Input
Amino acid sequence: MEIRSVITAQQRTDQIKSFQAELQILKDENIISLSPEQNKTIAKYHQELLANYSLKFDVDTSKNEKQLSLGMKIASFLAALGLAFSIFFLFFQFWGDYTQNTQVVILILTPSLLLGVTIYLRKQQKGDYYTKISALLAFVAFVLNLFMLGQIFNISPSLNVFFVWSIFAFLLAYALNTRLLLGVGIIFFSFFLSAKVGVWGGGYWINLSEHPENFFPVAAILFLLSFIKHSKLTSFDIVYRYFSMLLFFLPVLILSNNGLSSYAEMDRHFIQGFYQIVGFSVSAFAIYIGINKGLSEVTNMGNIFFVIFLYTKFFNWWWDLMPKYIFFLIIGLSAVFILMILKRFKSKLLKNTLWRLS
Output
């Protein structure tokens, strides 16, 4: 079995660890008995695989290593965030002391140097935490570069700058396998495309949030992108699906409560009712399809927004009419009802699994 990415190497490592633990239980309960030669052959094979994965992909081979990796990820995120803000405020603190030519040189050199450092670290450390921190700093410097150059030369703000920033973030994310930069690229791309849709609809691009329907095309594109094979990249498909569902359900939620912000020139109550039906039906379908296809992120987002749509309706219907203790009693009982449905669904899935095994 050929392993080409970190995620598949980590999955194979977890599989080996689970097999070793289960094999030990089977031996202890005298379910299976292997000869010393067989035990030695299996142990040697797994040791060689784990050593290879650890050396080549830096995978976690124990629970303690996983905990340390999580701590390192959090620390690297905080470091990147702190250093990014530091660069941002450093620029503004001393910016007025420099001549215009010096400012332009600084703006061009800073992202170029940071990008050079990122490329160097990428070659030396193959995607280490320091590389990702450097990449995020290069991106922040690039954002400042375009923003400040626009200020210096009095260039009119344009929505195209979101597209340029998103492309740079996507390039760094795919080159370094960084989900944080992928998320940043998606956010800037969603700003660009929704603003573009707003312009096509006859509006000014700055008012991109005036019509929530502007975000539907980008949600559809991101959802389609999530089905492109990302075998060498860690959970990129999941990131795409999370953002696509967020950019779909949030506008639907807004439109279900404020029909006046829609492009459709109809009665606002009709528009709100239409989007309420869309919200309930699509979130319920997301729960169903997520469970059936094994897409936990789709199930989770469907669950979250189905509950939000439900409680929003409860609030609209009964908050002003009912005593508060009855209102919250209904909230609690409805949550218990949802729990019962999900539990019944889980039991059904378990029965199907046992039936397939029998």
